[in-house]
User: Which sequence fits this backbone?
């Protein structure tokens, strides 16, 4: 996958598209902030169209969570790639990063 972006799919539901690696997270981080800022009280980011993931993806999700919490919003994640979910589990972050089940 080449371009990373956030796509609005329906109200307060956005899709994250592309790779989430050290080279790419900076370009998509600001788009996530915009989705959170302009969205409602509860926002879902669907990561089912994410390709490669590195530990930078975990840092990105935490950054988005901090941003949402500072604005008193709930941020949920769905469709996490297995590799990203495994990193979250290894880091014991399941209680912080809320993953919406399908």
Assistant:
């Amino acid at each position: 996958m080449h371009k990373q972006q956030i796509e609005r799919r329906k109200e307060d539901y956005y899709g994250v598209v592309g790779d989430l690696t050290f080279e790419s997270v900076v370009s998509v981080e600001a788009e996530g902030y915009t989705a959170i800022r302009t969205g409602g009280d509860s926002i879902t980011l669907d990561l089912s169209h994410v390709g490669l993931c590195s530990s930078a993806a975990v840092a990105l999700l935490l950054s988005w969570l901090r941003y949402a919490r500072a604005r008193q919003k709930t941020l949920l994640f769905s469709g996490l790639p297995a590799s990203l979910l495994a990193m979250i589990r290894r880091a014991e972050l399941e209680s912080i990063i809320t993953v919406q089940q399908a």
